[in-house]
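JOB MANIFEST
job_type = single_chain_structure
chain_count = 1
residues = 137
[input]
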Amino acid sequence: MTTVTDCGHDSQRRSRIVFLGVNRMNSVDEARLMSVCGGDSNAASALLQLAADSARDLIERMRFAVDQGDIAELGVIAHELRGSCSSVGATEIATLASSLEDELEIQNVTMLAAARIEEFRDALDRLDAAVQTLRSN
């Protein structure tokens, strides 16, 4: 299914982006991303790729923290991941990170965190797909 979404930096400048087969509702807030990039789809693609690369590194650091049982470090990394992803509109990963932060504040959840890492990896796959779709348009 092809979804065409009208995204713009302001009311006089509009860009049209076609997303093919990407569940963008859960993965990327197009309006936020385009706002950050001034409506430039090439800049959006590059920024989203940087966010995906950074998220990949942070998720691996999370896995290491879980393996080490370092819940404090896991919380720090989740906070960093939430901030970096929300700033560019990578909403799915930002939401997962925020949930993990909340859960870590409530209880010691090493097992839950390990399961959440898998959710992050799945979300990262969808973010990578959004990057590829942006590049192909």
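[summary]
The chain has one domain: 2-136.
The chain has six helices and two strands.
exit_status = 0
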